[in-house]
Design goal:
By secondary structure, this protein is an alpha+beta fold. It has three domains: 85 residues, conserved putative lor/sdh protein from methanococcus maripaludis s2 fold (Beta Barrel); 93 residues, Elongation Factor Tu (Ef-tu), domain 3 (Beta Barrel), CATH 2.40.30.170; 175 residues, RNA polymerase II/Efflux pump adaptor protein, barrel-sandwich hybrid domain (OB fold (Dihydrolipoamide Acetyltransferase, E2P), Beta Barrel), CATH 2.40.50.100. The protein is built from four helices and 22 strands. Strand 18 and strand 19 form a beta hairpin. The radius of gyration is 35 Å and the shape is elongated. The two termini are 57 Å apart.
Length: 392
């Protein structure tokens, strides 16, 4: 009897020792960070560095070879349309050079006619867009058309209005080039016959002098750029995007301009995705295919000028209320997407279907519910059923 009691006590002691050892050797819970699945706004954007430039920029060049008199204008000066901005004393031309000057007049006249035709085409397109906008307004009021179609029509009206303004400026510039070419031809003809006529160059449009390229008096050949004039009240932004990103951008998309030096982002809108790409070497020496995306600044501040650097963020997709989860909680598991959900102190793997995503969050199509806790940046030691503790 005494022997059985000793054996029982020994067995109890061994079992207790084994239990204590198992508890002591069992790994503790893995510390993790968690995020919450929730409904909220989500935006998908494309972001890159960009540069401002005047939408209507005019480069005034010498129509003939000659001695350029000193230009008195300076960078930043304001000019009005038709103002005298430079004077040129042409040199006598040979017969061939006079024929070239005559050809330039003919080319300028053809360019003026083409610019006028483009202006008339743009005006007709704008009139059609306005008629379509009025028609859709009536259909939306009757519930026969969607507000999205109406928004697209209004965007087309705004965009085509800008195209009309640009076409009108191009027509004005072409007409000024024609007048300059004719004046140059007349001046060189008089110079050839012994006259002393000077060629006066006039501002093709009102604006500000962006840069004086030839400030000093010297002899210059025909076609030499003298100064550049632009309208800083109508700025656009040129954004060099990777071609793989540019395919997701289309005209009319809203955008924000950041990093320009002000205390608030500036509103902009995509006007054009140029149809050709060019090769550019990155800072790491990698060849990249990029294309220019042109944005119109909706409300340019007075302090923003030509050639300023900004960061352009184009909103390619957005939703005001959508189920989303932290992007850092989603990972690949084979051909599917998965995440770890916190369930009573343990990690449970869930397969999920996702949609749009940005750098911080991802749209959840299925597999998760509103309010669930998911593990962000899951460490390698976490698997199905692993005990976890939430870091404070």
């Amino acid at each position: 009897m005494r022997f059985r009691r000793g054996t029982l006590l020994l067995a109890i002691a061994v079992a207790a020792t084994v239990a204590v050892s198992v508890i002591a050797l069992r790994p503790g819970p893995v510390a993790v960070e968690v995020g919450t699945v929730h409904f909220g706004p989500l935006q998908v954007t494309e972001e890159d560095q960009a540069e401002t430039r005047s939408h209507d920029r005019y480069v005034v060049a010498a129509p003939v070879a000659g001695r350029l008199l000193r230009v008195i204008l300076r960078d930043g000066d304001t000019v009005v349309k038709g103002q005298a901005i430079a004077t040129l004393a042409p040199v006598p031309l040979s017969t061939r050079e006079r024929e070239e000057a005559t050809s330039r007049v003919d080319a300028a006249a053809a360019g003026a006619r083409a610019a006028q035709a483009q202006l008339e085409h743009a005006v007709e397109d704008l009139a059609q867009a306005r008629r379509e906008d009025a028609r859709l307004q009536a259909l939306v009021a009757q519930g026969l058309a969607s507000t999205q179609a109406l928004d697209q029509a209004r965007t087309a009206v705004v965009t085509l209005g800008m195209e009309v303004a640009a076409a009108r400026n191009r027509a004005t510039s072409a007409a000024a080039e024609l007048r300059g070419a004719r004046a140059a031809l007349a001046a060189v003809s008089e110079a050839h016959s012994g006259g002393a006529t000077l060629v006066t160059l006039h501002a093709p449009a009102a604006g500000r002098v962006l840069r004086v390229l030839e400030p000093s008096e010297r002899v210059i050949p025909s076609g030499t750029p003298i100064l550049t004039i632009g309208d800083l009240a109508h700025l656009e932004v040129v954004m060099e995007m990777l071609s793989s990103q540019a395919v997701r951008v289309s005209p009319g998309m809203p955008a924000l301009l950041l990093g320009w030096g002000g205390d608030r982002p500036l509103r902009a809108r995509v006007r054009l995705v140029e149809p050709y790409a060019f090769t550019k070497i990155s800072a790491l020496g990698v060849e990249e295919k990029r294309t220019n995306v042109i944005l119109d600044v909706v409300d340019p501040p007075r302090s923003l000028g030509d050639g300023y650097r900004v960061i352009a963020r184009i909103i390619t997709w957005s939703s005001p209320h959508i189920l989303q989860a932290p992007l850092s909680a989603i990972f690949r598991c084979g051909s599917d997407w998965c995440t770890f959900v916190l369930d009573r102190g343990r990690a449970r793997i869930h397969r999920v279907r996702i949609g749009h995503r940005n750098d911080e969050a991802v749209e959840v199509l299925s597999g998760l519910e509103d309010g669930e806790k998911v593990i962000e940046h899951p460490p390698n030691e976490i698997a199905e059923g692993t005990r976890v503790s939430v870091q404070p």
